[in-house]
Structure formats: C-alpha cells, structure tokens
Amino acid sequence: MDLTYFAQSIARVKAMETKMLDKAKFEALIEAKDFNEAVRMLQDTVYSNYDMRDFEVGLKKALEDLYSEMGKISPSKEVVDFLAARYDAHNIKTLIKAKFSSFEYERLLYNIGTIPLDSLKLMIKDENFRDLPSTLRNCIEGAIGEYKANKNPQGIDITIDKGIIKYMFEIAEKSKLEYLIKIIKIIIDMTNIKAFIRIRVQDRERELFRKVFIEGGNIDIDHFLNSFNDSLDSFGNKIMHTEHFKWVKGGLEEYLKTNDLGSLEKYGDNYLIDFIKNSKFVSFGPDPLIAYILAKENEIRLLRIVLTGKKNNVAPDVIRERLRDIYV
C-alpha cells in the first residue's frame, strides 16, 4: 500500500489528539474532592458526550465510538481490524463461558471486533463456524472441545488468546504494513514474558509454559525454557540485549518489593506507550493511527482507575501509584 494514502487520516488523528487528556488534567481529577467533582471536571472534555456517573457504561461506549470513528477514517481496514481482533477474543471467551455457565453476559460484551456481535452470538450458540476465517474457526472449535473434555475455563482463555494473536499476525501480514508486524511481535513477546513470570511465580510446571507460549515473536521458546530453573533476576538479565529489558527489569524489581504482579502489567503498558510515542513524528503510514487507538485505550483505562478510586474514596497518592504513563 502507498503510505501516502494515510496522510488525510493522520491529519484527522492529529486533530483528535489535541482533545486527549493530558497529565495536568489527570492530576486535577486525582485531586478532586470527591467522585462527583471528578465527573463534573470531565464536562469540558470529549467525555461530556457520555454519562460518566455510570462510568463503566460511559467508558465502554467511548471505546466503541473510538473504533467506529477509526473505521471510518482509516484507508486500510486491516489497520483497525488488527487491534479490534482483541475484542473478538474477549467476546468469544465471554460467550463460550456463558454458554456453559449460564451467567448474564450482555453487559460484558463489546460492540467492537472483526466479527459482528450478533453473528458471533449465533455462531457460538449453534456451534456453526463455517463462515469464519480458518484460524478463528479452529481456535473456537478447539476451545469448546477442550472445555467439554476437561471442564477447565482456563483452557478456553489459553486456546482463544493464542488463536487471536495468530489471527492478528495474519491480518498484519495481509496488510503488508511493516508497522503492524512490528507491533504484533512486541505484543507476542510481552505476552510470553508475562506468562513466563506468572508461571514461575506460581511455581507451575514447565509444560504449562510450553502450552501457553505463542510463536512469532522475537524471543524464541528456548530462551524461556533455558531460564526456567533460574531466579527471576537472572531471567531479567538474560533478556538484557532485547528491547524488553528495561520494562521487565523495572517490573520485576517492583514485584520483588511489593509481591504484586500488577507492577509487571504497569511497566509493560508504559513500555508500549513509550514505543508508540515515536509515531508522533511519522507523516505517512499507519503508525499514528495505531498509536492513537492504543493511546485512547490507555486513556480510557486510566480514567477507569481514577474514577473507580474516587468512587471508593481511595487516597490520591494510591490512585496516582496505579496510573500508567500518558501519551500526550
């Protein structure tokens, strides 16, 4: 694809970026005297279009609107589908678990994805996936079959997560856009690193890691398996020559102090935000569009943390500690 085709959509994205919440705005929200004041402070932002008193519903709608808008302005369907596929994963896992557990699932679903939600509901209800791409069909059938055999919901997550990342890789390859390939390889490496550390912390078996490991990243499986009996510190040092060293080292250091694996998610999220900031200097190509979607997702995630904290009277310093870096 001629990368100059993205010029007009990049201009639109640059204009939308000016309406994102900056660090000063988040700081003001954190210091608001209570939840109601924080909600009022959002009235001069793009979130005034949503009922933020029920912020879970409001933020969900904001996320759905983000993908709807980006689908309209991107000259490449694959650019939006590439990231929207992650919501296919969420919806598929939710629907499969609901199928076998009969819980209320509607509020958990996102009207985002490469598969229309109504179609996906019907497919999973009837277990008829003939109209899906083969990668999705195989992973959904595999997840349902494994659950029927073992009655283990974790198997659904493992099978779908691996299948969706393979599907994302296929979308990236189909697009012939180098930036999408670069992003999916980062996502794969980060997913494998987090899985490895969690399995080691939980003292789980090596075979579980073999099962969850996702092919296609820049760090091969032997790198992990050869470190399986080493300390976490040692593992961190072994990836010194990869782009992941800094965030893994920071996340592990904080985990060893707090015993909270959430630090790994936080440092990983910060690394990804830092990586996409380079897209601000790109004039042609999909980079700014991908970056904007990820940045808006991060903004919505941060707003949820802040508003949840204000709703539950959490101290400002505690809320501040939970936040990720900000894109703008």
From TrEMBL:
GO MF annotations in UniProt: hydrolase activity; proton-transporting ATPase activity, rotational mechanism
Enzymatic class: hydrolase
InterPro entries in the cross-refs: ATPase_csu/dsu_sf, ATPase_V0-cplx_csu/dsu, V-ATPase_V0D/AC39_subunit, V-type_ATPase_csu/dsu, V-type_ATPase_csu/dsu_dom_3
EC number of this enzyme: 3.6.3.14
Gene3D superfamilies in the cross-refs: ATP synthase (C/AC39) subunit, domain 3, V-type ATP synthase subunit C domain
SUPFAM superfamilies: V-type ATP synthase subunit C
UniProt keyword annotations, A-Z: Hydrolase, Ion transport, Transport
Similarity-based family: Belongs to the V-ATPase V0D/AC39 subunit family.
Protein name in the entry: V-type ATP synthase subunit C
Organism of this sequence: Caloramator australicus RC3
